[in-house]
Amino acid sequence: MVDISAQLVRELRQKTGVGMMDCKKALQATNGNVEKAIEWLRQKGIASAVNKSERITAEGLIESYIHTGAKVGVLLEVNCETDFVARSEAFQILVKDIAMQIAAYSNIEYINISDIPNDIINREKAIEMGRDDLANKPDNIKEKIVQGRIQKRLKEMSLMEQPYMREHNITVAQRVNQAISVLGENIKVRRFVRFVLGE
């Protein structure tokens, strides 16, 4: 299997708008060939969501969710293209599920990995580089270990990279793409706020 670089994954993501994990899978399946990876994504039905990713989303819902015990609450905005889809049961269920997901995972702070500021990434890297278990490792090994830990941490902080709580074998991004395919409109998670009592 070809080693897929982060740069190649980023390039495919920029061309398609598809999530990082799907891009990586497509590149692995096509031995790193970007053009074939785009075809692979289209065959899997992921590209149908990609084609819609540039369309304007000005409708949608603002959903509130208060977790049992009223100690955690979420306010979430998810956009779609038309009021018709915004009022559909499938869209409303998706939005409610995403709000519940945000309430359930306390470490979610951003929608996408690309939204995480560089100073946060650098801070996380500095923390990892200073860990005791890496003290005696050679620099090249230390760098690889830290890179792996950083990627894991960034995924934990990103809503779209989380395992979808109702189907753990897919991510939230893949669940949104499924909804795009079914509803035929672009859907964007716009913003959210998570409230914790006493914080």
TrEMBL record:
SUPFAM superfamilies: Elongation factor Ts (EF-Ts), dimerisation domain, UBA-like
Transmembrane segments: none
Residue intervals of the UBA domain: 22-41
Pfam families named among the record's database cross-references: EF_TS, UBA
Keyword terms: Cytoplasm, Elongation factor, Protein biosynthesis
Gene Ontology terms for molecular function: translation elongation factor activity
Region listing for Involved in Mg(2+) ion dislocation from EF-Tu, in residue ranges: 82-85
Domain Translation elongation factor EFTs/EF1B dimerisation: 49-199
Keyword Ubl conjugation: no
Xref: InterPro entries: EF-Ts_dimer_sf, Transl_elong_EFTs/EF1B, Transl_elong_EFTs/EF1B_dimer, Transl_elong_Ts_CS, UBA, UBA-like_sf
Annotated signal peptide: none
Known role: Associates with the EF-Tu.GDP complex and induces the exchange of GDP to GTP. It remains bound to the aminoacyl-tRNA.EF-Tu.GTP complex up to the GTP hydrolysis stage on the ribosome.
Name used for this protein in its record: Elongation factor Ts
Taxonomic classification: Bacteria, Bacillati, Cyanobacteriota, Cyanophyceae, Nostocales
Gene behind this protein: tsf
